[in-house]
Design a protein that fits this description.
Elements: E1 4-10, H1 14-23, E2 29-33, E3 46-48, H2 52-57, H3 62-65, E4 69-77, E5 83-93, H4 96-107, E6 112-115, E7 118-124, E8 127-132, E9 136-144, H5 151-155, E10 167-175, E11 182-188, E12 191-197, E13 203-210, H6 211-214, H7 220-226, H8 232-240, E14 242-243, E15 249-254, E16 262-263, E17 266-268, H9 283-302, H10 308-337, H11 340-352, H12 356-363
Parallel strand pairs: 1-2, 1-9, 2-6, 4-11, 9-17
Antiparallel strand pairs: 3-5, 4-5, 7-8, 8-9, 10-13, 10-14, 10-15, 11-12, 12-13, 16-17
Helix pairs in contact: 1-4, 1-9, 9-10
């Protein structure tokens, strides 16, 4: 394999693969990731249509992957009545198993892939030296897209990685009859769960829970039975839903602490730059959008239109302008949702002012990305 690249991308999830497809149109790109495709990933698997035009410009047609078109949102807490709203722009129900594979197949047309992990990155004058398990590589620019948390976060001494996080995420696919056109959010004690249909007709259940609420139960099945079923909608779901996998995917120590989009002259994209609370249902689109923003400025830098420092400043400003308010609203919504009295009060307001729910949803979604 080659040793010298224009761009090396650490991580081959949504953000890393999107950046690879975009940048490999004009530059030599390498993606380094320790896992093979296809693969299941922790995700709500609802993709906002705000990224549709941009993905089409890269040769990715998401409507060919899934016919599950989602335009409506439904919300419950405990035994309280169901609230519904229309989603701005709408979305697609598509699994990470299918979407990541589609992006990978497109990326590998022009991108090199290395099945490995990066152990060290050093900036040496005008290029980076990248060390993996058994390779020493160079690149003009490195992009970090390693997801929610990784060993590179520790290597870079990022502040969020130093703190313990109380959040545990659980994901499982089920056989369950559910309308195509709706995504659901159901709150329970200590957390909340999302339900959405995916391309093969199965339903994705993905939930986030505070570890303090979870630890008194023996296992996930016991927690589902004793806690999730206290929610009126989840109770009905678990009566008939049949799990597809032998066991669920779980991730602990999920951090929603504020992160920086640039660390040590490295561009952070996707969840590596900032993780929106899953209740907002916009993480997949944000990952793809962040890759588009980064690719724009990396292209300008590699074409000698701007300096590296200008690239870093422009990306950081653009990232914050695009995502900061969404992340702020996400933090605020999670605090409300997990506080019983505040949620009860919110229900009272929504009963009397139903137009507020679409406004709140819109605050966590973006406008359509222009290629």
């Amino acid at each position: 394999m080659k040793k010298n690249y224009d761009v090396i991308i650490a991580g081959g999830g949504l953000a890393g693969l999107t950046a690879a497809i975009h940048l490999s149109q004009h530059f030599k790109v390498l993606v380094i990731d320790p896992d093979t495709y296809p693969r299941h990933k922790m995700c709500g698997e609802y993709l906002s249509m705000e990224v549709d035009s941009y993905l089409k410009s890269l040769g990715i047609h998401i409507n060919d992957l899934s016919q599950v078109t989602i335009n409506n949102f439904r919300f419950t807490r405990g035994s309280q009545s169901i609230k519904t709203a229309t989603l701005p722009l709408g979305g697609i129900g598509v699994s990470r198993y299918s979407l990541d594979l589609e992006l990978y197949n497109k990326a590998k047309e022009k991108t090199d892939f290395l099945l490995d992990r990066i152990s060290d990155i050093t900036l040496n004058h005008n290029h980076y030296e990248v060390i993996t398990t058994d390779q020493k590589l160079t690149a003009r620019q490195v992009i970090i897209a390693t997801g929610k948390r990784s060993l590179l976060d520790k290597k870079l001494a990022r502040p969020f990685i130093q703190k313990k996080s109380p959040w545990l995420a659980v994901k499982m696919h089920y056989k369950f009859k559910m309308p195509n056109d709706i995504v659901e959010l159901h709150a329970f004690k200590g957390g909340y769960a999302g339900l959405s249909k995916i391309e093969n007709g199965n339903v994705n259940l993905c939930y986030l829970v505070n570890y303090e609420s979870f630890k008194e139960y023996k296992d996930i099945n016991a927690f589902n039975k004793e806690v999730l079923t206290q929610n009126i909608a989840l109770k009905e779901f678990f009566k008939v839903a049949v799990p597809i996998w032998e066991k669920p995917i779980t991730i602990s120590q999920i951090s929603f602490e504020q992160k920086q989009p640039v660390e040590g002259k490295l561009l952070m994209i996707g969840d590596t730059a900032g993780l929106i609370h899953p209740l907002c249902g916009n993480g997949m689109a944000m990952a793809i959008h962040s890759a588009q923003i980064a690719s724009k400025y990396v292209t300008q830098y590699l074409q000698d239109e701007i300096t590296r420092d200008q690239m870093l400043i422009k990306y950081s400003k653009s990232w914050r302008k695009t995502f900061s308010s969404r992340l702020l609203y996400g933090r605020w919504l999670q605090k409300v949702l997990l506080h019983k009295k505040l949620t009860t009060l919110s229900y009272w307001f929504l009963e009397r002012l139903p137009f507020l729910l679409p406004i709140i949803i819109k605050k966590t979604h973006g406008k359509e990305i222009q290629p």
